[in-house]
Amino acid sequence: MSSAPGRTALITGAGDVMRELMTRAVLFQDAVAKSAGLNATDMQCANLLLLYGPATPGELAGRAGVTAGGAITGALDRLERAGLVRRNRDGADRRRVMVTADADELWRRVGPSYERIATSWNAFLDTLTDEQLEVADTVLRQASELNALEIRRLRGSDDADR
């Protein structure tokens, strides 16, 4: 194990890199959204539908951290006009509306940006040993879980961020 001052510097550096990564991830998502003619919130709503499946407008609002009223309705209206989501009545409960992402259309519009970054990322990952990949997986999964926990705290919610 490293000396305390060296270890402290490494931990501080890792925190700085994580902040930079999160900032760049937000800016990347914003740039991808704009390249597809969307705003960042609309892009995140579409991405949440891809990640976690169809949702009611209220469920999607909770996942995205926006109000269930006007903000989510506006986002869904824009996404529907863009051909990226569909709103359909739930077959089991006709009063309920389910929102589904059109994955093919979304990937047609934003896929090239993600494919470029995935190609570069995978090329880098291929240079790592299996042990390094396992450590990277552990670090990234823990960072994701800690972010999800803090999102719930900031929103004052015990619900999962999905």
UniProtKB/TrEMBL annotation:
Position of the signal peptide: none
Record SUPFAM superfamilies: Winged helix' DNA-binding domain
Alphabetical list of InterPro entries matching this protein: ArsR-like_HTH, HTH_MarR-typ, MarR/SlyA-like, WH-like_DNA-bd_sf, WH_DNA-bd_sf
Protein name (record): MarR family transcriptional regulator
Domain HTH marR-type, residue spans: 31-133
